[in-house]
Amino acid sequence: MTASIRDFRSGDRSDAESVVRVRRAALPFTITTPKGVAFELACAHPAKRHRILVAEGPDGRVIGTAQVGIAHDSTEPGQSYVNAYVDPAHRGLGAGRLLLRAAEEHLAAHGAVDVYAWVLDEPAHRAFAERHGYRPSRSAHFLRLDLTAAALPELPRDEDLPAGVELLPGSAFAADPRPLFEADAETTSDEPGDVAASFDDYEHWLAQTWHSPSLDKELTTVALVDGRVASFAAAQTDGATRYGSAMTGTLRAFRGRGLAKLAKTVSLHRARAAGYTEAFTGNDAGNGPMLAINEWFGYEICATETRFTKKLTKPKGRENL
Ligand SMILES: CC(C)(COP(=O)(O)OP(=O)(O)OC[C@H]1O[C@@H](n2cnc3c(N)ncnc32)[C@H](O)[C@@H]1OP(=O)(O)O)[C@@H](O)C(=O)NCCC(=O)NCCS
């Protein structure tokens, strides 16, 4: 056994940088920053029992990492997640296996019944998951748009907007972000997936989503209809070159009017003007409308992940719980 597992050291900047290095190497389509990693742990809801595990190689260098916790906002109790990443340059040292074992022990000890793990659609990754008792379920795509070359739809002029429609940056809601919380809650509950999510805790949303250091409130764009929030394109960035879609949503009453396309058009133009060169997003393979919108912008699928799932057995002595 040449790798060892420990918890991520919050407050240790170099540990956060190591986690980012590994996440970027293993999954280059996500937006991840040292500040974001520290924040992810600090603001996790206590019921999530969220941990960031770290695998060290024989020389003490961080070669793997995993996010582990309970999906506390799932509508079904006992759902949990583990997403493990090993630096491709350091595979075969047992880091993945040890991360998974530590994660499953943690989850089982906190009452998890089902565990979900995102696995890249590559034969070695799928075989690893299957060897550890995981079975495939839904897939999701990562999509990429080269902002330096994309022919974005024209930036809409105010006079061309449909009657009653207004577009504002997310920062315009700084004094009262509650309408964005309500829009996020309604649309997230409609997002296709195998772990149904719903949330109603405004204070927690403020702490975790609105105050996230990755959320870019200037690039986030909101479409209002007659003064009411109808649609939004939430943006996150790494502060350097990468822009990511955090969530795009249109309230049920306003769907099919082109509002998501409008909000995202403005957001992408602002991102390009701010110097971002690559845009990324992730969509469930069954999300026809969102995939159609992203393909319309020129995004192309750059990778596919499958969600693998496994039933956990209860730890000894807790079988009757
Ligand atoms: C996806 C969503 C944001 C779309 O919002 P919207 O304001 O209705 O989108 P628009 O009107 O701008 O564009 C809709 C486009 O979807 C496409 N579309 C709609 N239904 C579709 C379907 N069933 N299959 C394939 N494409 C579809 C069309 O291309 C349509 O564009 P067009 O009418 O101009 O041809 C909205 O349905 C939503 O909030 N869903 C739940 C949350 C979610 O899944 N968000 C994405 C998370 S990644």
From TrEMBL:
The keyword Acyltransferase is annotated on this UniProt entry: yes
Keywords associated with the record: Acyltransferase, Transferase
- UniProt cross-references to InterPro entries, sorted A to Z: Acyl_CoA_acyltransferase, Bact_Acetyltransf, GNAT_dom
Q: Where is the N-acetyltransferase domain?
A: 6-158, 175-315
Which SUPFAM superfamilies does this entry report, sorted A to Z?
Acyl-CoA N-acyltransferases (Nat) (SSF55729)
Q: Which domain of life is it from?
A: Bacteria
Q: Which Pfam families does the UniProt entry name for this protein? A: Acetyltransf_7
Q: What is this protein called?
A: GNAT superfamily N-acetyltransferase
